Amino acid sequence: MIITTTMHIENKPVQEYKGIVFGEVVEGRNFVKDFMSGIRDIVGGRSGSYEDSLMSARKAALDEMSQRASKMGANAIIVLLAG
């Protein structure tokens, strides 16, 4: 599955729009991770555990979008907006 933020894919004209797809992910809270992140906020620094969690959630959402688009018969997702 091709996924892009642009409106066009070089040498791949859009032949049909299939609709909108979404990918949602909700992660549970973790007291220890929240506590350690709070300490890092006080002393300064980055929270590696939260960064890893965010990257994992983003990948899961993209995978979910890709699966949904594929079920609709699409071979690409264009104009991806992540927020």
TrEMBL record:
Task: Output the InterPro entries linked to this UniProt entry.
Answer: UPF0145_dom_sf, UPF0145_YbjQ-like
What sections of the sequence does the record tag as coiled-coil?
none
> Which PANTHER family does this entry report, sorted A to Z?
UPF0145 PROTEIN YBJQ (PTHR34068:SF1)
State the protein's name: YbjQ family protein
